[in-house]
Amino acid sequence: MRSASFSTFGKPSDVLKIEDRPLPEPGPGQVRVRMRMSAIHNHDLLTVSGDYGIKPQLPAVAGTEATGVVDAVGEGVTHLQPGQRVAASGQGAWADYYLASAGSAVPLPDAISDEAAAQMISMPLSALALLHYLEAKPGEWIIQNAANGAVGRTLAMFAKRRGVHVVNVVRRESAVEEMRGLGIDHVVSTDSAGWKDEVARFTGGAPIKAAIDGVGGASSGELLSLLGQKGVLLSFGLMSGQPMQLSPSDLIFKETVVKGFWLAKVGPALGPEKIGRLVGEIVESVAKGEIDLPVSGIFDLADVSRAVAAAAEGHRKGKVLIKA
């Protein structure tokens, strides 16, 4: 079978190669999925470059989330059957076939397209887990940068359903209209002079409880400066590639708490029952069209180098996907 493999860490478009690998056999509690479409996430690119929190043993097959059809089931799997369409996370998803835990495979209704199903779990689940982690309540304000990214968009949509107010910070004016086109309110671009005054207008002077920082660098300090007393700054990403730049006076006099968030650590603490409820909410919302998961490009698995190069570009309006 074809697989997008890498034997050294490096720039994904340089080190990923299509190789022929044996068909994997599902072990106990696993399913083999015939991949139809897979998302390219930032953490996939960081894993290939060797900059993520987990480094796979090399050589490895890239990709972590896809949708497809169950092809075979391992011992003990009774709730899934061959031929069943699922969305499932699993290592080595950028291949004609990949293995996934049967417990994490989500059966799909016909109302959800492959394009949506391929990106339906990781980023939306991160968004819901962030809201849960922050214990955000109806009527409260939070703020996030990188708001036009996959997590940012879905977080804003889910927060709106819960009555939680979100200030959505982007880095270009064109992204403001893109976000509004998705029904997302309170969007402001740092390209605009006086954008912090716009934030104050949105909130009407109400305190901002928490900030979600997906950028790092100077952006971290900008969010910190807007937090209310005893607010929480949550580090979620490192788009800038720069260390967080924080004002000691904001930290000291506001008694700010700074935390890190990684779903790989937070998810297990939530427990399978809570995760199941969150995933159920995602499936229902996507099926009803209440949560939009846009796509900016679809590439064949054979063109994986072009696909990851496109995914690394800025100013995208949605996910880049790989199809088998």
TrEMBL record:
**What InterPro entries does this protein map onto?**
ADH-like_C (IPR013149), ADH-like_N (IPR013154), ER (IPR020843), GroES-like_sf (IPR011032), Mito_Enoyl-ACP_Reductase (IPR051034), NAD(P)-bd_dom_sf (IPR036291)
Q: What Gene3D superfamilies is this protein classified in? A: Medium-chain alcohol dehydrogenases, catalytic domain, NAD(P)-binding Rossmann-like Domain
| EC class name | oxidoreductase
Q: Which reaction does it catalyse?
A: a 2,3-saturated acyl-[ACP] + NADP(+) = a (2E)-enoyl-[ACP] + NADPH + H(+)
* Family note: Belongs to the zinc-containing alcohol dehydrogenase family. Quinone oxidoreductase subfamily.
Keywords, comma-separated and alphabetical:
Fatty acid biosynthesis, Fatty acid metabolism, Lipid biosynthesis, Lipid metabolism, NADP, Oxidoreductase, Transit peptide
Q: What's the source species for this entry?
A: Neorhizobium turbinariae
Alphabetized CDD domains for the sequence: ETR_like_2
Q: What is its EC number?
A: 1.3.1.104
Cite a single Pfam family from the UniProt record: ADH_zinc_N
Spell out the coiled coil positions from the record.
Answer: none
Domain Enoyl reductase (ER) per the UniProt entry, residue ranges: 11-322
The entry's protein name is enoyl-[acyl-carrier-protein] reductase
Q: Which SMART domains match?
A: PKS_ER
